[in-house]
Design brief:
The protein is an all-alpha fold. It has two domains: about 5-45; about 60-265, MetI-like (MetI-like fold, Orthogonal Bundle), CATH 1.10.3720.10. It has helices spanning about 5-10, 20-45, 55-70, 70-100, 105-120, 120-135, 135-160, 165-175, 180-205, 210-215, 220-230, 235-260. The model has no long low-confidence stretch (mean pLDDT about 85).
Length: about 270
């Protein structure tokens, strides 16, 4: 008689299901192991502190930033920039992506342009954006928007295309108009995948924050990192980078939790 695999053995099985508790324990162990390896490498003396400070030095630098540089203000400004740019991307990308997938003329006109621009490196566009918008907030928002919108609009279009054709045909059969099909059939069907794509592209938006805030900026996490770099204050630089990672991780987990709550019917038993 075959014995059922233990929780530990399920971790090594192909697409096996494990409990949330097991996943949490493994995540904590991975994090602790990473910190331990980092501490050993930094404390061994093989790497100079200017290149790799200890985790404790980074934590101390993080708390020094608040009284010395009003770091909470920089965090608030950066979060505001990212969310504002992301909101603008969503407002434009969702209707345009749906139209690109439902009306062939819109897709034929927009897809080649979007495909071209999304392959352009955003850092290379920074000088051009400064020429167009100056060195104020608009150019920083534009950098974040450029790094997010052209990826998101294609993901939205793909989500709309994946809605089964039977749903659309059934709606038209009972007399629905195109606007009703979009609002009552297309959007509800694509919403779970669309929110997942929001979560992914929001992460991309955060990756462009440093680029947006190193050009003629006087505030923000990216500006702080760039300023500390000039004085070779590696612990402060790493503290700023880790701050971005923590904010992104918390946001990602919050959206995941909300997604599970909103779409419980997608959870497999």
């Amino acid at each position: 008689m075959r014995r059922s695999p233990t929780e530990f053995h399920r971790l090594f099985e192909f697409r096996a299901k494990v409990t949330n508790r097991t996943e949490l324990v493994m995540a904590i162990l991975a994090f602790v192991s990473f910190i331990l390896i980092w501490h050993i490498a930094a404390s061994s003396g093989l790497i100079r502190p200017e290149f790799l400070p200890t985790p404790l030095s980074v934590v101390e630098a993080f708390f020094r930033l608040f009284p010395q540089r009003d770091f909470e203000v920089d965090i608030g400004i950066s979060v505001g920039r990212v969310w504002f740019a992301f909101f603008l991307s969503v407002v434009v990308a969702v209707p345009l992506g749906i139209l690109m997938s439902t009306y062939r003329i819109v897709g034929s006109i927009c897809e080649p342009i979007v495909d071209l621009i999304r392959y352009l490196p955003v850092p290379a566009l920074v000088p051009l954006l400064i020429i167009w918008f100056g060195i104020g907030e608009v150019s920083k928002i534009a950098v974040l928007w450029m790094g997010t919108f052209f990826q998101l609009v294609l993901l939205i279009a793909d989500d709309a295309k994946r809605v089964p054709e039977e749903y659309i045909e059934s709606a038209f059969t009972v007399g629905a108009k195109p606007k009703q099909v979009i609002g009552h059939v297309l959007l509800p069907s694509m919403l779970p995948n669309m929110i997942d794509n929001f979560r992914i592209t929001l992460g991309w938006c955060w990756t462009y924050l440093i680029i947006a805030e190193i050009v003629a900026a006087s505030s923000g996490i990216g500006h702080m990192i760039w300023s500390m770099r000039r004085f070779v204050k590696t612990p402060e630089v790493m503290a700023g980078i880790i701050t971005i990672g923590i904010i992104g991780l918390l946001t990602d987990q919050l959206i995941r939790w909300w997604h599970r709550r909103m779409f419980r019917y997608l959870q497999k038993n």
